[in-house]
Design brief:
Two copies of one chain form a homodimer.
Chain A (H helix, E strand, L loop, with lengths): L13 H19 L6 H8 L3 H8 L2 H29 L5 H16 L1 H12 L4 H22 L3 H19 L2 H4 L4 H11 L3 H5 L8
Chain A binds a DNA duplex (30 and 30 nucleotides) through helix 3.
DNA sequence: ACGATAAGTAATCAAGTGATAACCTGTCAA
DNA sequence: TTGACAGGTTATCACTTGATTACTTATCGT
């Protein structure tokens, strides 16, 4: 299937290589989701052989689980300081904007994380993934709720906004905003400022 | 691959059969998304042979496009009367609740529609699907905005709520709410009333 | 009756896919 | 030096999957 010429003869220790493969898998799964991504694509992205990827994680499903978990954990970590602020000053509605900004920033920083997260949720009807997806969604919800002391509806609204952002990124709305004023309006409304930075280079109208 | 014994010798005309296959495809794609669903699964669901499905629509991608389009169109149709009301009485904030209720009702009525829609959006990075996904998202946005006369942010908030509902349904949150009080709280907050009806039979904790 | 056309199916394929087994080769302790 | 283990790869498999081709058989106008 795939057998990249080893770029260098020097070897990595397993832990290092593992991180590298996880990063590659994150990128690959972000694009295609669970079913739409082959282990070979991950391997190529990582610059290793396909059997190595499979053996390293046992199975494709196991690999996805790990990538999924890392993504959610990273998101939660990024929320942490803002949640601390909200916890200290619960009345300050403005801090929710800061939460949104944190999410948007993460998106600009590493969109793959959020896309992986979304694909995990979307593949929730697949039993192997679904249970984990529910667990993570619950964790996200309770963490935000408990740390912020917000009402369920406040938390719901925030998470909902995140889901829309994920969706817009998944359909590459920012890249195509230049060709569609209405889509641009929705995107800029959802992303707030900093969208322009996110857009990167636009894509021609045929895309 | 699949060759179901013809249940009856009587034939349908193509148009009828087409609708039947589209309904089956809707169900199948709702579960697995684009990549996670085989044409054979669609065929089995429809009770026809796999080659027939492919030939009838030209390709799997074409079939999905049609299913996707029907789903979005159906959703828009369902919004129509409520949008008319909002248009006539723009100040009445309560009508947005009615929009949400319309969406929830559609969800209870035929969750497949919304799941297909979501999977279409989620698969947006696949070029064949992405362009259509963006077109539809734009259509939904402009339609709601123009017919209601609402601000972009009002519309954004509404669509965001829809995306969360889709996600929760995709991960089968209602069915598992009984086993997880926090997930149940989020779900009941997102769905509003009528969730209990949606839950149907719960599923044991291993699911 | 009959033949043309539409509504299907059976058989088959080439490509792709996750996984396994067997093998190679740096690296490092003794 | 050497030998053993960790870090990889090559080769290969069984199975799936979308698609194509060729065939069968209802149905209906004449």
């Amino acid at each position: 299937m795939n057998s990249p010429a080893p770029l260098s003869k020097t070897r990595m220790n397993a832990a290092e290589r593992r991180q590298l493969v996880l990063a590659a898998a994150s990128k690959a799964f972000a694009r295609g989701g669970y079913y739409g991504t082959t282990t070979d694509a991950v391997a190529r992205e990582a610059g290793v052989s396909q059997p190595y990827v499979v053996r390293m994680f046992g199975s494709k499903a196991e690999l996805f689980r790990e990538v999924f978990a890392r993504a959610v954990e990273r998101v939660m970590t990024e929320f942490e300081p803002v949640l601390a602020k909200i916890s200290a000053d619960p009345e300050n509605e403005e801090l929710w904007g800061e939460m949104g900004a944190a999410y948007t920033q993460l998106l600009l920083d590493d969109r793959d994380l959020l896309l992986v997260m979304m694909h995990g949720f979307a593949a929730g009807s697949t039993p192997e993934i679904g249970a984990q997806a529910r667990t993570w969604m619950t964790r996200i919800y309770t963490e935000i709720r408990d740390r912020s002391g917000a009402t369920p509806d406040q938390v719901r609204t925030f998470i909902a906004g995140g889901m829309l952002l994920n969706t817009l990124v998944a359909m590459e709305a920012p890249q195509h905003a230049a060709n569609d004023a209405d889509l641009a309006e929705l995107a800029s409304c959802a992303f707030g400022d900093g969208l322009d930075a996110a857009a990167g280079e636009a894509v021609d109208a045929t895309g």
